[in-house]
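Data card: per-record layout.
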Amino acid sequence: MMRRCTCILLALLTLLSLTACGGTKSGSASAGSLSSSAADSAASGSSAQETASPTSHSGDEDAQPFDKNSVTWTDWTGVVEHLFFHPVVAYPELAFDGDAQANGIDDYMVTADEYLKILQSCYDKGYVLVDINQVWNETTDASGKAVMVRSELKVPEGKKPLVLSFDDVNYYPYMLENGFTYKLVVGDNGQLWSYGKDPQGNDVYSQDLDAVTILDKFCRAHPDFSPYGARGCLSLTGYCGILGYRTQTDTKSWTDAQEANRQKEIEAVKPVVAALKAEGWTFGSHTWGHIRLGGSKSMAEIQADTQRWANEVGSLVGPTKILFYPHGERPDGDDWKKTGPIFKYLQSQGFRVFCSVGTESFSYIKKDICAVICDRLHPDGTTLRHSRDRYLQFYDAKDIIDLKVRPDRGVSWAN
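The structure for this 415-residue chain is written out next.
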């Protein structure tokens, strides 16, 4: 039986999403101007920064590519583990400054340093990255009915597959003031970089402060961590645009100037999307408005939101079969024991893999409809402080959590 998300976990996730959605949902001309200027600066290589520039040689390009013929491949029929992260904290001094956001960030995020240590531990423990899209595939059974099946999955001998996903890779306005990077850009070297501002207000382009760029850099240094070339799946909403670019519309108020700025943002994000795809990243829907799918929204509202995601996000990143439930809330209240009208509608829109949050990397191929439901584990402040044993197969929270930069809120495990 599946271990269902506890009410406490759902409540925590709800709090996070309300915090994230607490930023503006409107298309801000000032935010769009910042995004465009940042992209222009990245293209020219101009910056005042504490790390390397988007044109520099970072050294990890010297790593030898992974040789698929140098290893013995074996079939993997066990559980495919799945970890998910929210955006990582680049500057703890801004994130954990005692304001109204500090405890929420502490609960649901890890710092850039903690994240890198988690990646290193997973690598040391023999995990290799696989694309969630390759774990299951759609086919037809003997009767001609469309069904999902577990794919034949091979991994290097002695290794274990791991899926990574990343929720809310939108760079919400509240994050910009609380120690996160602002957006992704493409440097002159063709690699992805993050853009943001340090605590002194200086422009910073870096590959060491954002979950995407840190993983890219890690895989370049350790190509055997990604034998298939996979990275992770980016779970996107749309109400604040995507990837730090304000590509959204606002139905309450919209001017020609706002639309012109939106079109500039759309053009600016296209090369970022292309670079992500080239690097092995994929995309999933987190709904346009981070809406509840468990019953509080009407079918009409869910249909409108789904169409808006397709129009404003899917049109930029392409179609996806992956849906990540906002708040971890399952369609119709329960997608495990029943297949309700909301689930049927979402499946009819092309979604096949439906991801919630739980206490283990669980998956179940539904028998009555062509779909898979699965749970993911969530490395964050809450589990680092209070769920050490559950994550020991990946890392030891004692070695990961940085209590020097986090709020003094204690841990449940002994020293």
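Known properties of this structure: The longest helix spans residues 256-279. The first strand starts at residue 73 and ends at 76.

See the next section for split statistics.
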